[in-house]
Each structure stands twice: as C-alpha cells, then as structure tokens.
Design a protein that fits this description.
Blueprint (H helix, E strand, L loop, with lengths): L1 H9 L8 E6 L5 E10 L2 E8 L2 H8 L6 H15 L3 H12 L21 H14 L4 E2 L21 E2 L6 H6 L5 H10 L4 H8 L2 H6 L5 H10 L16 H11 L25 H9 L6 E5 L1 H4 L9 E4 H5 L13 H5 L2 E4 L5 H16 L5 H16 L2 H9 L5 H4 L14 H14 L3
Antiparallel strand pairs: 1-2, 2-3, 3-8, 4-5, 6-7, 6-8
Length: about 425
C-alpha cells in the first residue's frame, strides 16, 4: 500500500488536475478508487469504495461464475448484435431460475419474433408464473408513489405487468386467443389481473392483432371490471411540493456524464462529480462513513440532480440487530459508493463495506433473498432510469405509438427497445446475489 502511494507522490507534477485510478489489493482485486490532486498544501487524496455489486463482479472475473457468463452473452448480443444463439440460451437459463425470472419484465419485446422454441417455452413458463405477481403500477410509469405515510389506506394501485405483454405474445404466437380466454375464465375472481389484461384490449383492436369477434369475447369477459381510481396522497409534504415544482420547471437537462454507459459500470461516472465528493468528504467527522447514490452516480444525472447521502450509523441504528439484512436497503448498501472520514484507512473502509455484501450473500435461498434481489432490480431498472433517466439521455422511439395507451403505462420509456435493452443488461449483470 505505502509503496503505491509513495510512487504517486514522486509523480506529483503530473497530478495537478486530479484523476482517478483503480487501486489493487495484494490479491489483485480491484476494490477502491483513489483520487489525487495537487493543492497549495500538497497532495490531496480521496479514496472511496466502488458499488459493491460492481467490485464483486470484477473480483469474480478470475473464476468461472455462471451468472457472469450469462450476463456477458446477453450484453454481447444487445451491444453488438452478434451471438444470437448465446443470447437466447442465456435468457432461457435466467427465465428458468426463481431468482432471476423477473428479467422477463425487461427483455425487449421486439426479440420475441423468430425466437427459438426452447426460449418460447421458458418465456411462457415464466410468464404464467408472473401472472400471480403484483407490482406497484406506478413503478413502471413515472414513479410517483408518494411518501410511505402519505399513501392511501388501501395501498397503491397494483398491476400484473406481464399481462401487458399480451399483444406481443398473440402477435408472435406465444399465446392463442383460446388460451387467453381460458386464463380469463380461470382468474375470473381476480380483478387486478383481469384489469391488467383489459388494459390491452384497445391496443389489440387498434393494431388489428385480433379480429373484431375475438375482441368482443375478451371485452365481454371483462366488462364488469372497473378501472382503478386515480390516487392522491393523504397529504402533500414540502418535499413532494418541491418535487412537483421541479417537474413543472424547464430544467437545463445538461447531463453531468454525457458519455456514461447507462448499462454500467457506474464508478467511472465518479470522475465528473469529484468536486462535490470533496465537499462531502470535507464535512465528514474523522470516523464517519457515508454511502452515496443517486442519478449522478448512475450516469443519467443532470446539473440539477441531487446526490443521495446515507450516514452508515443512521442506517445501522434503524434496526436493533446489527447483523440484520434489510431487503429494502439492499440497493443502498450494494449499489452506492462508500466514503469515509480521514481517520478511516482505505483497507478498513473496504473491509467494512465487504462485510455488508457478505451479509446479503449469506442469505441463502428464500423470501428475504428474493426481496433483496428485487430491490436491486428496482434501483437499477426502475428508479430513476425508467422514470426519467433514460429519457434524459435518449429519444423515446416507442412514444409516438405507445404514448396513446396510458392505461398500459405506454406514455413513458417502458416499451422502448433502447430502455428495455439497457434494463436487461443491468438486470443480467447486477441484480443477483
């Protein structure tokens, strides 16, 4: 460690603008980024730990890990167009796994046509299982889910999101009209699911995917299903008022990291926000540790975007058991950078961070692990990539068509090929334990 730092000190004249580089531990694992800068007082050094899901993947490159092999096959095809067979084989394997089945929510719908028969079977098996899953509807829209204590007593509106893929399943012969009618009959007492299917009837009719006679049968079987009422928060907080105001304002939209790869890795984006991190570090107590996340770390933040900063002590004090694994905080611990006060050595900061990763890795199979993985999925693929991040970076190609169908949440990036490709790559690479 000391020899590496002393070598850099001898090169001080080259460091006046500041820079980042990967810091290697003795075992060759890339774990900590260092920032050096010449100041009037000498060399300024700032070190912080990469997002743990990122450093974990880098550490595991030295050994065969099936999930990383699958992610590589998926990313290779979506980024280059080569390796089609490997892509479908990888997707099939993830769809067949209980811990990764939710990738079906993000796979580009345009790729369903002419896909291999083994993929179709795995896709439909996963699809049928997902019909029993209910997600908060707004998660797949603009993310306006209110503060927890401002939510209506009946909870937020929910959706069986896979039902919204029905037009593409019919179009590509993954599903027949008779099979769809049987599903509607089998689930005749499940209003949430029936409504989720009913959301697609207008799209089916407009695009002439089914004949009028078939549409009438579908409409008849769901005629008593009422649309969900538009929900309002129980109260409007100052934080919400400011958020609504920011949505109405014409913000600059100037990206902090215009060359960022939205599909990760995220740590290179840190180089663009070093002045902000320096200010955070300067205000830390000597032994304080904070976790930092947000859209600027993810690569789609604008000049108006704030950083999310969580003091580690406050996170730990939220539960009596110090070894407790909170699925709702998985993204905070594993998908943020770690920054420590001046009295915390970089190897100790890394050791503390790794201990939290180990907690989640040791969960074993079960509901808590599934909820932790789902929280990573939400952070990577929904908040705020879907809600606003992707659209800040890209034109939404699906909007001219899907924007006409808000009942399917079509007036956002969810059905866009580019968004879905990005979300699929993020899910494959990082949404696992």
């Amino acid at each position: 460690m000391l020899s590496a730092i002393s070598t850099i000190e001898h090169r001080a004249p080259l460091l006046r603008r500041g820079f980042l580089f990967d810091f290697y531990l003795n075992n060759g694992i890339i774990c900590t980024l260092l920032h050096f800068k010449m100041t009037e007082r000498g060399i300024y050094m700032l070190y912080f730990v990469k997002p743990l899901i990122e450093s974990r993947n880098e550490a595991l490159k030295a050994v065969p890990v099936r999930r990383l092999e699958l992610a590589e096959a998926i990313c290779n095809y979506l980024e280059t167009g080569s390796g089609r067979e490997g892509f479908f084989e990888a997707c099939t394997e993830l769809l067949q796994n209980d811990e990764s089945r939710r990738i079906i929510l993000y796979l580009p719908l345009e790729l369903l046509g002419n896909s291999p028969s083994y993929f179709k079977k795995a896709y439909m098996d996963a699809w049928y299982r997902m019909l029993d899953i209910r997600d908060i509807r707004e998660n797949f829209h603009f993310g306006d889910c209110f503060e927890v204590d401002a939510r209506p007593s009946e909870g937020l509106n929910r959706v069986a999101k896979c039902a919204h893929f029905t037009p593409w399943l019919l179009l590509n012969r993954f599903l027949t009209v008779d099979q769809l009618l049987c599903i509607l009959d089998d689930y005749s007492d499940d209003e949430e699911l029936l409504l989720s299917f009913k959301d697609t009837w207008r799209y089916l009719a407009d695009k002439h995917i089914l004949r009028d006679e078939a549409i009438k049968k579908l409409e008849f079987m769901t005629e008593d299903v009422k649309p969900q009422p538009r929900q309002k928060p129980l109260y409007v907080s100052e934080k919400r008022r400011n958020w609504l105001l920011s949505k109405r304002k014409r913000l600059s939209g100037v990206l902090v990291t215009p060359k960022a790869k939205l599909q990760g890795p995220f740590s290179p984006n840190v180089s663009e926000i070093l002045p902000t991190l320096e200010k955070v570090a300067d205000n830390l107590n000597p032994y304080e540790i904070v976790l930092i996340g947000g859209s600027q770390i993810k690569g789609y933040g604008t000049l108006e975007s704030d950083l999310d900063i969580w003091p580690l002590d406050r996170l730990d004090n939220s539960h009596k058991d110090k070894d407790y694994c909170n699925p709702g905080l998985t993204h905070v611990f594993l998908d943020s950078i770690w920054l420590g006060g001046v009295k915390i050595p970089h190897d100790k900061l890394q050791m503390i961070a790794n201990s939290y990763l180990q907690r989640y890795e040791d969960l074993g199979h079960g509901d808590k692990k599934l909820r932790s993985i789902e929280q990573l999925e939400k952070d990577l693929c929904q908040y705020r990539l879907l809600h606003k991040g992707y659209a800040t970076f890209n034109r939404i190609e699906s909007y001219p068509i899907m924007g006409l169908y808000p009942e399917m949440e079509g007036d956002c990036a969810f059905y866009d090929y580019g968004y879905r490709s990005t979300a699929t790559m993020l899910y494959a690479k990082y949404a696992w334990l």
